[in-house]
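Meet today's protein:

…
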Amino acid sequence: MSAPADYEKLGAFYLGRPWDPASEQPTGGPLLYDGRHLTTHAFCVGMTGSGKTGLCLSLLEEAALDGVPAICIDPKGDLGNLLLTFPELRPADFAPWIDPGEAARKGQSIEQRAGEVAALWKSGLGAWGQDGARIGRFRDAVDLAIYTPGSQAGLPLAVLGSLGAPPPGLDAESLAEKVAAAVGGLLTLLGVEADPVQSREHVFLSNLFHHAWSRGQSLDLGGLVRAILEPPLQRVGVLDLETFFPAKDRQALALRLNGLLASPGFASWLEGEPLDVQRLLWTAEGKPRLSVLSIAHLSEAERQFFVTLLLEEVIAWMRAQPGTTSLRALLYMDEVFGFLPPVKEPPTKRLFLTMLKQARAYGVGTVLATQNPVDVDYKALSNCGTWLLGRLQTERDVDRVMDGLAGAAAAAGTTFDAGATRRTLAGLRSRVFLMNDVHEEAPVLFHTRWAMSYLRGPLTRQQIGQLMAERKAGVDAAPSPGGLGAGAAATGTGAGAAGAGAAGAGAAGAGAAGGATVASQAGAALTCMAAAAATAAAGWSTLSGCGAAT
C-alpha cells in the first residue's frame, strides 16, 4: 500500500483502490481522482446498499481536506454524518449516535455497541491507510454546519426575509431568470401550477416582480399581497388586466398567499442567517465551510421552493465571480430524484441545467446523486464529465445509465465501449464502482475507501439539534436582510468576503416580529379588499383605496 503522503497531495482525491474482478480484491495503490475534473461535474448512482452514500461523503471529505467549500443539499438526512468525525476514535465519541434498537438486536448495551463500532472504525480506517490524525486534519480544514430551513432544529435560514431586488446593472436575461425562479418557487410552495408560459398566476406575478425589481424596489410578502390586490399594471401583454386576471381571481390568489403568511410555521422561514451563498461557503475569517442544508423535515412543495431559491442564489453568486479553471466550490445534492425529472419541468430543473452548462467557467462543480436513474433527465446529465456507477437494481436502470453515458461521451467528443460497460455493471458488488471520467482514457473499476465519517444513517431533528447546540448557544449573528436576491449582492471573490457566517441562528424574536409584521400587512390588505369585494368585478381600480404596491 502506498504511503499516506501519496494521496495527501493538493488536488488528489483519495476515493479507494482499483478493483480486480477476477480475484475480487482491491489491488495496487490508491485510486486518486483529479479534483479539477469536478468542474465538469459528476453524477453518482447506485441502489440501496451499493455504497453510494459512503462514496459521496468520501468525495466531500477529500474536497474539504483540499480547502474546497461545499453546499450540500440533504433530502434524506444522511449528510449530517459528516459531523460525526472523531479524531480520537473513542467509544464515548460514538456512544451518543448509536442506534439503541440496533444495540438491543445484537444483545448489547449502548456502551458495548459503541466500543465495537469505535474498534471497527479504527481498523477500517487503518486498512485504507487512514487514522485519527487524518480525521483531525479534516476537522481543522473546514467549518461544519447543519442548516434547517423552516425549522429551529439546526441553524435556521431566513429564506423569506424579503423579496429583495437584485443589484443594479443586472442584465435583462439574468433578471428574467431570477424573476422566473422567485415566482416558480413561490407558486410551488402555494401548490399552484408554475408553468412560466401556461400559468396565468406565473405570468401575472412575474410581471409584478419585474415591475418592482427593474425599478430597484424590493418586495416583502405583505407588499406582494397588496400588489396582487392593487397591481401597478394596467395591461399584461396586449390584454387589459381585468380580462387577463379578474379581480375575484386575484383575490383568491391573495387569500392563498395570506394563508401561507398566517400559518403557525411561517415565522421559522424568517429567522436565522440570511440565505447568502458567500456565508454558506466561507466563514468571516476566510475558512472554507461545509454547509449541510437538511430538508428532510420539509414537505415536497417546501423542498422544491427552498431548492429553487437556493439554486438561484448560487447562480447569482457564481456569475459575480471571476472565471477560473480551478475548483472553487462544490454544490452537492443527494437524491436529486424529483428535482431534475425527465419529463416534468419544476423550477429546479431549469436551474440545475444552468449549473451543469455554465458553472464550469466559474470553477463551481455540481455533484448529483440518486438511486433512481430512470427518474432523472439523462440528457441533462450528459453535461457531467464523471460518472460514478454502483450496483443497480433493474435492467431499466442500466439502460438509462447507458443512455446517459452515450450522451456524456458524445458531448465530450469521446467514445465508450457499451458492451463492456454493460457487462461490468452487471457484476458489481457493494462498495465497488465503475468510474467513467471523460478526462481519462478508459473507465476504472474501484473499491471505495473507508469513510472517515461515522455512517450511522439519517439524523433526526433532535440529533441535528445536539450537533448544533453549542453553536446556537453562542453569540447569534445579527440577521442581515435575507431571502430572495440576498446572495446576488455577495460580489466578493476572496474567502471571507461574506459576513459572520460562523455565527449561530439569527435572533428568533426579530424573525417572529418580522413574521407578525408581514402577516399584519397582509391582513390589512385583505380587510380592505373584502370591503371592496362587492364591486370587485368592476376591475382592479376599485381597490385603489387599499394602498400602493411596494
